Amino acid sequence: MSTTSEGATPGFLVWRLSTKWRVAVDRAVAPLGLTHAQYSLVASLYGMQRAGERPSQRRLADHTGLEPLYVSKLARTLEAAGLVERAKDPRDPRAVQLALTEQGRAVTLRAIKVVHALLQQLLAPLGGLDSARAREFGRDLAALLDAPLDAVLDPLPDP
Description:
This protein is mainly alpha-helical. The chain contains 6 helices and 2 strands. Strands 1-2 form a two-stranded antiparallel sheet. Helix 2 crosses helix 3. The protein starts with 9 loop residues before the first helix and ends in a 13-residue tail after the last helix.
């Protein structure tokens, strides 16, 4: 264990790992003209389109865990870059559907390969992406993401 994590709480370690990952992905996808947040959006959109879905911005926000307003801003930026198409949802005039353009698919596939290699590197201490430890780690992370968190305003009893 490194001196950075000695005696650290799990919350601190989650924060450090998420920061380390965000910075690493930002650096890895920057040569492709993407940020980590944009990568999260286009990679999720790619997976959803492969499954036959043309998601709304709201659906993509729910899927990625990003705020709907932020997804809208990212989608506009990606549209301006020629990577994403935005269109009115024929079933709901208030909703906007998203789809990758040809250029968007090409950039996304390259970015997925880059991030996959980065993920292999991150998970090497656990035996690699396909190891039992990495699968268990993934299940643990999913359980933590599924756990509800309620704000605790005053956790300490009155003196």
